[in-house]
Amino acid sequence: MTILSTERSLFFLLIALLTLPPAILLAGEHGYSAMSLLSLLRGDTTSISDMDYLVLTELRLPRLFAGLLVGAALGCAGCLLQRMTANPLASPGLLGLNQGAALGLVCLIISPLPFLPLYAFIAALSGAFLAMVLVFGVVRITTGAIAAENLLLFGALLSTLFGALTTVALILDQHALDAIRFWLAGSLSLIERSQIGPLAALVLTGLILAVFSTRSLQLLESGHDTARGLGANPRTILIMVSAIILILTATSVAVSGPILFIGLIVPHLARLWIGERILDQLLGSTLLGALLLPLADFAVFLLDSDDRIPPGVALAILGVPWFMWLVKRRYRNQ
């Protein structure tokens, strides 16, 4: 793919991303008029009822912004992980972050602390951080070195452990099950406006760090010996990139639950449409993720206005056939 076509593809994705929010707000049975949105942008709230203004500012806009940020974060994290491990089947959930965040939330629910959005965010983030630390610690202790393929292996094993602990806690506490089951399906309906600020700060920080890490990651892809010959430390690069993946994935999981398959599907779409170069694929994955999740969330909302179907379910229905096709193609190539 030529540089011109790559730049054109990224430009079209950026234009689509800029037009998506107003298109979603205008569409649907409960859409707003274009004049109302323009008036709101100018600071005039008289063109819309108090109830519609409350729904827009407290529900629809926070949910839309959260979808954009979470989708971008998961797409970027999936691209980094697949390039770091040289494994096209890798996704952020394989590092145990989803299960660690779920365990952190369950611990909060069964504790005396109130289940407030801020506490829930901190608990999920802490659980995901603990999972990442344990993965690195177990890999370092058992193998004596930190290798990307070992991170995925032990991440999957610890995911099973965290999942079992979470299941036991939910069985023993019915209240915890009722409070967390919708979050476990991966949903944006529980987003509150107070969460958007911390979410945006952490996601944007992770995205900026990801862009600056592409050169180091490219050195790592050339081989550990080559990277050392060029003055880079492969272990430091692995830890740095993994920390960025932690920031992006853990922050997303903390507010929306484990939304699967974006981190798996989006990097492949970016590779096909944008190009193989790591920076191009990273930017494409970020933009595509930011497009895909709000679209999936809006699609399921149109199908079920009662908001009973989380977007994670819709993405899983699309993602499972894609995953099977990737596995078949990989083993056929081998």
SSE blueprint:
Elements lengths: L2 H24 L7 H8 L8 H36 L11 H13 L7 H27 L4 H25 L1 H11 L8 H20 L1 H8 L2 H6 L4 H23 L5 H12 L4 H26 L7 H23 L1
Would you mind describing this structure in some detail?
The chain has 334 residues and is mainly α. The chain has 14 helices and no strands. Helix 1 (3-26) packs parallel to helix 13 (278-303) and helix 8 runs antiparallel to helix 11. It is globular and about 65 Å long.
Quick overview of this protein structure:
The protein is 78% helix and 0% strand. The chain is mainly alpha-helical and 334 residues long. The model has no long low-confidence stretch (mean pLDDT 80).
Q: What's the number of helices?
A: 14
Terminal Cα span: 25 Å
Tally of individual domains: 1
Number of DSSP-assigned strands: 0
Can you summarize the main beta sheet?
Answer: none
Mean pLDDT: 80
CATH class type: Mainly Alpha
CATH-defined superfamily: ABC transporter involved in vitamin B12 uptake, BtuC
| CATH fold call | ABC transporter involved in vitamin B12 uptake, BtuC
Radius of gyration: 20 Å
Element order: H for helix, E for strand: HHHHHHHHHHHHHH
Shape: globular
Query: How much helix is in the residues?
Result: over 70%
- Percentage of residues in strands: under 5%
